[in-house]
Design brief:
single chain; Aminopeptidase; seven-stranded mixed sheet; 7 strands; about 30% strand
Length: about 160
Amino acid sequence: MADKSLIIQQSKLSEVFQLAPRLREDDKRECLAAGKTPLKALKDAVRNSYIKRSVYTKDGLLIGMYGSCTKGMPKGYAAIWFLGSRESEKYPITFVREGKNFINEVLQDYSIFNLVYKENKGHIEYLKRLGLTVDETKPIKLINGEFYAFYLQRQVSNLAQI
């Protein structure tokens, strides 16, 4: 990560126990709207992801986890996710820059599709800033709330198709 005060490393399942109780309120609400506790959402995300990373401050505080998974997705698609603590909001420029880098990494192999909780306006704006399309015209009902689909199609060059 470009910000020298943040350290990114491969996630370990044990880290979810540190982060889950400290998630941002918006992240907690999104997990609950999808029918999962924050701990269950983090566990599932880490277990099912082929990319799974943890973000720490220089002084060792875990402030977020993110990744990408293909489990349960149509062929050629990956879901991306990020769950963070309030402290993650202190690094907005870094998270936008690194979020774009992460999206580009995923797009090397997959198109992106996932859902965002309709009530999380900050998350929706962040996804748009990263260049993703958020379809706010057709809410999708999940267990305890409505969600919007977000996506970004992978661009395959003509040479790759030959």
